[in-house]
Design goal:
This protein has 429 residues and is an all-alpha fold. The protein contains 17 helices and no strands. The two termini are 27 Å apart. Bound molecules: aspartic acid. The site of aspartic acid (ASP) has 16 residues, from helix 15 and helix 17. The site of aspartic acid has 16 residues, from helix 15 and helix 17.
């Protein structure tokens, strides 16, 4: 059934309308209704949860099958080159992102003059920084099926890569029997991956309704506070997100002679999905689809760089950490010197790598950044009160972080594909 096939029946008006337009309408209607109705709009939450569950349902099967196929169809040397390139890009943009966060926060000074008292009734917990080497070792899954079933992306990526390379080896073997079974296995995974793409397409048909519900609930609960006392911190964070998306990524695209508007046109479904689901991992199915179908990225590259990016590349989260660290220190009347600001840059990059691509992860990892400059959260302290304030609007901040995170993954993937001369330029003309 092609996209062009006109559907007939009771819901034909729905299915025949342009998908993106439907999603946009869902987004706007949801925001408006949420603000009008207020917190009681939460009754429609299940409609949003259906979309989130559907996306989550498909993520791990999609990552596994497409990555196995990707790794099996690429030379290990090429894979290494792609890995190095994307890693450099991810690190560089994350460091830029925290710096932007600190910059906008220094300009707008959110939280200054709040003078929170120490009697505030809020609790938090200190977070001990995991050892770098332990984090690295944990990428190797002790039990690949366990990693797969509990949705751990990095260990699954690791196993899928090794498994895919294994398939490539026996597929190219001199031994006819081995070559044949390698080919069979490749076809099985290739077929399974194609089925996952079809399911993603079906899930997207439901997206407008899910988007509507998700956004309505957030605006119903938190819309007012974003315009109220926490307006400045929301504004500052969003100034950072916009600078990163329009400025940093824009410059990267332009330097590489890639159309700015073409990018947004091709990537907007994924951007909107990221915004409303607040989950880079959950958005992966849409991100992959947009990159492959709209912007000419080959699956063998995106199947590797996008799941990796959804796990380790969090530019929006890095910006948020810069802004919120300054918000909290301002709110409690603490001055940060240059060394402390540099420490924030370094730890925020690490903390953003460590943040999972799920809703709210960044807010937990912020504690690690605060720890690095000697701030721990004790129940009843002023710092805890400031932290509680931003936690109160975390959904709104998380929407901006996640759209930035996902956009960064997409731009990186496009740049690496172009660098590898694998980008289908017909999609950009
Ligand atoms: N929700 C973000 C994401 O999935 C992570 C975060 O909380 O910062 O990308």
């Amino acid at each position: 059934m092609s996209d062009q096939t006109k559907k007939k029946g009771l819901f034909s008006w729905y299915f025949n309308a342009n998908l993106l337009l439907r999603i946009l309408i869902g987004l706007i209607l949801g925001a408006v209704l949420g603000i009008i109705v207020g917190p009681s709009i939460a009754v429609i939450q299940p409609l949003g949860s259906i979309l989130v569950n559907l996306l989550k349902m498909i993520v791990m099967p999609l990552v596994l099958t497409s990555l196995v196929v990707g790794a099996a169809s690429i030379l290990p040397k090429e894979l290494g080159k792609i890995g190095v390139r994307i890693f450099i890009y991810y690190m560089l943009t994350s460091a830029l992102a925290v710096s932007i966060g600190l910059l906008v926060a220094n300009v707008f000074s959110p939280g200054a003059g709040l003078q929170l008292s120490a009697s505030a009734d809020a609790a938090g917990k200190a977070l001990t920084q995991p050892k770098f080497i332990d984090t690295l070792i944990a990428i190797i899954p002790k039990n690949p099926f366990g990693a797969l079933s509990s949705g751990q992306v990095l260990p699954t990526i690791f196993f899928a890569l090794v498994f895919g390379i294994g398939i490539a080896v026996i597929r190219n073997s001199e031994d006819e029997r081995l070559a044949k079974s390698g080919e069979t296995l490749f076809n099985v995974f290739d077929g399974a991956a194609e089925v996952m793409y079809v399911i993603v397409k079906w899930i997207l048909e439901y997206a407008p309704i899910g988007v509507f519900a998700l956004i309505a609930v957030v605006f119903g609960k938190q819309g007012a506070s974003a315009f109220g006392s926490l307006g400045l911190v929301t504004l500052t964070a969003y100034a950072g997100f916009i600078l990163q998306i329009a400025g940093v990524y824009g410059v990267f695209l332009i330097i590489n002679k890639l159309g700015y508007l073409k990018f947004f046109k091709g990537a907007r479904e994924a951007m909107i999905t990221a915004f409303v689901t607040r989950s880079s991992s959950g958005t992966l199915p849409v991100t992959m689809r947009n990159m492959n179908e709209n912007l000419g990225v080959p699956k063998k590259i995106s199947s590797f760089t996008l799941p990796l990016g959804a796990t380790i590349n969090m530019d929006g989260t890095a910006i948020y950490m810069g802004v919120c660290a300054l918000f909290i220190t301002n709110a409690v009347g603490m001055d940060l010197n240059m060394t402390q600001q540099l420490t924030i840059i370094l730890t925020a990059v690490l903390a953003s790598i460590g943040s999972a691509g799920i809703p709210g992860a960044g807010a937990i990892m912020l504690l690690m950044v605060l720890n690095s400059i000697g701030i721990t959260i004790e129940a009843g302290s002023a710092v805890a009160a400031a932290y509680a304030m931003i936690l109160g609007i975390d959904a709104l901040l998380d929407m901006g972080r996640t759209i930035t995170n996902v956009t960064g993954d997409m731009v990186g993937t496009i740049l690496v594909s172009k660098g590898e001369k694998e980008l289908d330029m017909d999609k950009w003309s």
